[in-house]
Amino acid sequence: MILTLFPIQAHAIENGDDAAGIGFVVPILIDKGNGQRSSCSGALIAPSIVVTAGHCVVDAMGVATKNVYVGQAGSALSSITNEDKISTIQITSTFKNTPIVDDDDLAFLTLGKSQILSLPVVIASEKQLTEFKSSKASLKAFGYGKYGDTSTVVVTTPRSMEGIFSNIPSFVANSAYMTSTKASSCKGDSGAPILNITATQVTIVGIIAGGAASVNCSKKASDGTYRTIFTLIGRYANLAFSAAIDVMDTQSQKILSDRETLLALANKLNDATISNIQALSDLDEAKATIVELNKKLPQAITCIKGKLSKKVTAVNPKCPAGYKKK
After folding, report:
1. Which residue from 62, 253, 279, 292 puts its CA 20 to 30 A from 111's CA?
2. Of 140-149, 173-182, 283-292, where does mean pLDDT reach its minimum?
3. Does the residue 267 lie in any domain?
4. 208 near 191, Cβ under 8 Å?
């Protein structure tokens, strides 16, 4: 059943390229309570773990909510169902959730049901982040944000944009800028992954936190580029590990539950086996009884003497003297 709690039209990165079916970005729908609903993007970093922006998964009071629904990677927002609800959330302890872009805007979600991660995603180390920044490494973002600054065109699948790791200093702690000359991030791209993709490895560098908005999308800076602020993910591998522990705890509980179910089934089978053994024993006794009863019933035999024959009927029939059993 399609989730009707969120009647939202989804759009994507302005001037971006179609990324339907991409295995790294997931659509996220959030019920914030008090009638407030929103949508975000997220990055699948393990079959049961998604990283997104912290501000994406808080309710109207600024408290983390479990009323978060994560769709299949690369799918449409409209395909999300009630069964896509997450299990747990881990948000950075220093995130404050103010109306502006904040420090350490990250959250790790444990999914209620796992997904297929088509390619392994590596979390960038602090050393790699420094190297990416100094070399202005190429970056790629995937998101479900608005299609354009004032566009009304509905696009439900994700889009991507390319840019570079900018050396422009960020005013937000543990963050950096991605700049692009062609495309810009928009509302709904929050939580989208910023990736460095090579022929041999996909490295997640950060998560989109926001930017200087025009209407729905980032406005062009004086240097002619669009700037997107993203939270660096490297130092928060511990939260990813914590989310993984949540997954293992959930799986352990399921294993225990399955074990109890199997034990109950085994006990039932054992009881049934005992009953069957008893039934077989009763059957053997019945057969023996029948044999004994047959012995007590009159039986007929034919006895012959030369050309003479005589029929003898008795419980234990015997041929007369001079006759033999035919």
Report:
1. 62
2. 283-292
3. no
4. yes
